[in-house]
Design goal:
Domain Nudix hydrolase: 38-194
Strand content: 25-35%
Radius of gyration: 19 Å
Number of domains: 1
Main location: cytoplasm
Distance between the termini: 33 Å
Helix content: 10-25%
CATH class: Alpha Beta
GO molecular function, one term: UDP-sugar diphosphatase activity
Largest sheet: 7 strands, mixed
Structural class: alpha+beta
Order of helices and strands: EEEEHEEHEEEHHH
Subcellular location: Cytoplasm
Catalytic activity: UDP-sugar + H2O = UMP + alpha-D-aldose 1-phosphate
Number of strands: 9
Length: 210
């Protein structure tokens, strides 16, 4: 996962995932504009193993986090990966995925749990909690948040993603989650993950504390 090299920055060609554009509008009589990104909506799933009382996370290299760890003066040349090791871009997240198939959001969530975490959950095991807007400064895409409980018997695959994804499955106890939430940071997890953990600690954790 951390074997990253030959890093450099180039212009963005046409992309199936990110489409930059400018929105022009008039607000209170004043002409304005705002630069935005069109991206896919997504799902995110809290996966809690009730057999061993462990939260299931995924860890992966996130280029956006890595890029923002590089000093601006060093971005215009090949990146020195000794000065900026790949570990700077490793994020701990909930299982998640973009909505880019003609499936229901529950079916996409089920698929992501199997591919990333290795658990074969039923559609009825997935409980929709809420939906919210992410990246409201530049994208405002909709993410739908699910919760599911799994057992060791439901682990049918290794997990770790598909195609060229490099994902590590990570487990944490409830005390470890609380320690993470109370960390002074910076925490290399998206706000949606921290929101999900706070939701879990508020609504579910007491049932599984030892």
């Amino acid at each position: 996962m951390e074997d990253v090299k030959d890093v450099y920055i180039s212009p963005l060609p046409d992309s199936p995932y990110v489409k930059p554009f400018r929105l022009n509008y008039t607000q209170n009589g004043k002409k304005k504009n705002w630069d935005l990104l069109e991206v896919h909506d997504s799902v995110a799933i809290i996966v809690f193993n009730v057999t061993r009382r462990r939260m299931i996370f995924v860890k992966q290299f996130r280029p956006a986090i890595y890029f923002n760890s590089i000093q601006p003066d060093d971005r215009h040349k090949p990146i020195d990966t000794e000065k900026y090791p790949a570990s700077l871009g490793i994020a701990l997240e909930m299982c998640a995925g973009i909505i880019d198939k003609k499936l229901s959001i529950e079916e996409i969530a089920k698929e992501e749990v199997l591919e990333e975490c290795g658990y074969d959950v039923r559609l009825e095991d997935l409980h929709k909690i809420t939906s919210y807007r992410s990246g409201v400064g530049v994208q405002g895409s909709l993410q739908t948040f699910f919760y599911c409980e799994v057992t060791d018997d439901m682990k049918t695959e290794q997990g770790g993603g598909v195609d060229d994804e490099i994902i590590e499955v990570v487990e944490m106890t409830i005390p470890q989650i609380e320690q993470m939430i109370n960390s002074p940071g910076p925490i290399c997890s998206p706000p949606s993950c921290l929101f999900a953990l706070m939701w879990f600690l508020h609504y579910k954790a007491d049932k599984y504390r030892k």
